[in-house]
Amino acid sequence: MWNPRPTQTVFGDVFCLRDKDVNCFLIQGQNGYLAIDSGYQNSQNTSAGLKMLGIAPEQVTDVFLTHLDIDHAGGVCAESQPIYPNAEIHISAQEETYLTGAYSRKTIAGHRCKLPIALPRYKVFAPGEALRVNGISILPVAVPGHTLGHTAFLAKGIYLFFGDCIIANEEGGWLFYDFWNQDPALNRESVQKLRDSKLHAKYVLTSHSGCLSWEEAFRYADKSPHWRKKGFVFCREAEKNPYRA
Ligand SMILES: [Zn+2]
User: Fold this and answer.
1) Which of 95, 105, 130, 161 has a beta carbon 3.0–4.6 Å from 36's, enabling a disulfide?
2) DSSP character for 81?
3) Rounded to the nearest whole angstrom, what is the distance from the C-alpha of residue 208 to the centroid of ligand 1?
4) Beta strands in the chain (DSSP E)
5) Ligand 1 mean position to 93 CA, how many Å?
6) Which residue range(s) make up the domain with 57?
């Protein structure tokens, strides 16, 4: 069940765009913007959102992808009208292996499904290596599990873009629905490792359920929602509930 935030200024220098059930983000730099994820392919929602925020797509210099699922990487994939025409695309070395075919996101009856995403061009980063882009400090943090190269990004030392590691409701953050995780046990391990690390960001921004404090984000870091339960309701005010019959 998804509960993304409407398109808005989240903080003075951080913006979110809503595309159906997902948020992607923009961080203001010295000379334009850095984006985290890109929404779906050929999306009217993201372009309308940019207009609403007064941000020209050409002002976005770099896009860092948390992972290659279509709701996050669709806007920069080869088949899409590029949402940010001037931007350099960045993915982790681990996530790149989905593009080369070494990893497979989904296997049906033993058959490896082809990734629906192809990137026109991109740069590969190594998690743990601090970068400075557009005057913004950005630290990629490996959090494998949802996908095997899933990456979180700590920007400006205070904002942690957490992608699909957790999902939050009124009570706090839980491990992301295991149905959508490539390796749920690995996601749990990654989330708990980060919780116990020294990173401690001030704000944690999720892709499908808004922004939380660090304490809220890791409140249920040992539990994933029981979405198989009959009549499952995770978040009362969520508009999107793929688990409702
Ligand atoms: Zn997602």
Assistant:
1) 161
2) P
3) 7
4) 8-11, 14-19, 22-29, 32-36, 60-64, 88-92, 107-108, 111-112, 123-125, 131-133, 136-142, 151-155, 159-163, 166-169, 172-175, 203-206, 211-213
5) 19
6) 8-217
What pLDDT, on a 0 to 100 scale, did the predictor assign at position 238? 74
* Residue 227 in domain: no
Q: Which pTM does this prediction carry?
A: 0.94
60-80: per-residue pLDDT in tens? Answer: 999 999 999 999 999 999 999
Please state the separation of Cα 42 from the chain's center in Å: 18
Kindly state whether residue 45 falls inside one of the protein's structural domains.
yes
Query: What CATH number corresponds to the domain at position 50?
Result: 3.60.15.10
> How large is the average pLDDT for residues 107-133?
83
Q: Give yes or no for residue 108 having a pLDDT over 90.
A: no
Within a domain: residue 240?
A: no
Examine residue 126 and state whether it is found in any structural domain, yes or no: yes
Q: Which residues surround ligand 1, an ion (CB under 5 A)?
A: 71, 164
Which percentage of the chain shows pLDDT scores above 90? 82
